[in-house]
Amino acid sequence: MLAQIVLSALIALRPDAAPIDAARWNILDPNGRVMTYLGASSIFLDNGVAVLKDSSFADGTIEFDIALHGHAAFAGVVFRGTSPDDYELIYLRPHRSRQWDAIQYTPVFNGSAAWQLYSGDGYNASAELPDNRWVHVRLEVAGYAARLFVDHAVEPQLVVKDLKRSWTRGQVGFWGSLGGANFTNLVVSPIDAKAPAHSETALPPGVISKWELSPVFDEATVAPDRLPGEDVPRIRWESVAPESSGLVNIARYRTPVVARQAKPARGSRDLVFARTIITAGLPTRVRLVFSYSDAVHIFLNGRLLFQGESRFQSHDPGYLGIASLGPEALYLDLRGGDNELVFAVSETFGGWGLAGRIEAE
């Protein structure tokens, strides 16, 4: 106990840390506050973000100390923030300590984190996450890569090779959810850097490269199991391009409406229609491999072919709803000429996206 008290005192004395002064922080959390915890002045976050007002960071290092509380929660570091709803995020899951997904990277677009879309190598990593003491975290960022070291680890536990948001200078801060954590001793050390070249990676063979998105609808008023008709105002479609994996992260282009409501109406979910054209010289059958989150209805030339649900815990208590190309597929009977393929994609939380790949039968 004495050693822990001494350690807390030493942590509180770091002269280069950003002061934990409420006037210097933009705390966007109804329960967030400045408080003393384990002997140090700190910021507690329960469900929101705290951004250092005068910070400007693109490349360099970010260090801080975090105290986890020993219960299921999520807490981490925000960087390259351009608004309270748009930033890069790396966070810890203390209840998953030593598991493959103890650490998570996700971009945040329009307030939507997307852990269901970004999973596995380069997005998740294992680490031991002690609770009820200060744990040092160091983040190194260079271009579109990042490395995270937890609790003075010699080697990084998480290596991100492809940060998803555009390179830019932005604000730095903390993030917490479902009970969060306490944070202190933020040290931001930017380096002088220029925007790096981000080479375009060719899409894998057969991956659908062109999509158009509709505006956002509420599933309570626009049914996802039929294409919009006369009851829906004329749709203005926007052309979008998938990421190098073929994924379209819908939140990159659309702001969720229902998900931001404190108490959505029964049956409400954010809904977007995504369409593409598949051209065939002659009538033929092809295989469509697809992924989605959280729910999808798939139409070919106006006919509903498939509906699926993959939201968190929708199949069983341990079901995560991770989206990846491969597990699901169906056959499309194409007519000669143009064929319209439409995905109606509904979202609750955790990642709003789709991808498709066409294979010969």
Question: What features would you describe in this structure?
Answer:
The protein is mainly beta. It has 2 domains: 2-190, Sandwich (Jelly Rolls), CATH 2.60.120.560; 211-360, Jelly Rolls, CATH 2.60.120. 3% of the residues lie in helices and 45% in strands. The protein contains 1 helix and 26 strands. The strands form 4 sheets. Strands 1, 4, 6, 7, 8, 9, 10 and 14 form an 8-stranded antiparallel beta sheet that branches. It has a 7-stranded antiparallel beta sheet with strand order 2-3-15-5-11-12-13. The model is unreliable at 1-10 (pLDDT under 50).
User: What is the end-to-end distance?
Assistant: 66 Å
Order of helices and strands: HEEEEEEEEEEEEEEEEEEEEEEEEEE
- CATH superfamily of the largest domain, please? Exo-inulinase, domain 1
Tally of separate domains: 2
Beta-strand content bin: 35-45%
CATH architecture descriptor of the largest domain: Sandwich
Summarize it.
The chain has 361 residues and is mainly β. It has 1 helix and 26 strands.
Helix and strand arrangement:
Elements: H1 2-12, E1 25-28, E2 33-37, E3 40-45, E4 48-52, E5 60-67, E6 74-83, E7 86-92, E8 103-109, E9 112-113, E10 124-125, E11 134-142, E12 145-150, E13 158-160, E14 171-177, E15 181-190, E16 211-213, E17 217-218, E18 238-240, E19 248-249, E20 270-280, E21 284-293, E22 295-300, E23 303-309, E24 328-334, E25 337-347, E26 353-360
Antiparallel strand pairs: 1-4, 2-3, 3-15, 4-14, 5-11, 5-15, 6-7, 6-14, 7-8, 8-9, 8-10, 11-12, 12-13, 16-18, 16-20, 17-20, 19-26, 20-25, 21-24, 21-26, 22-23, 22-25
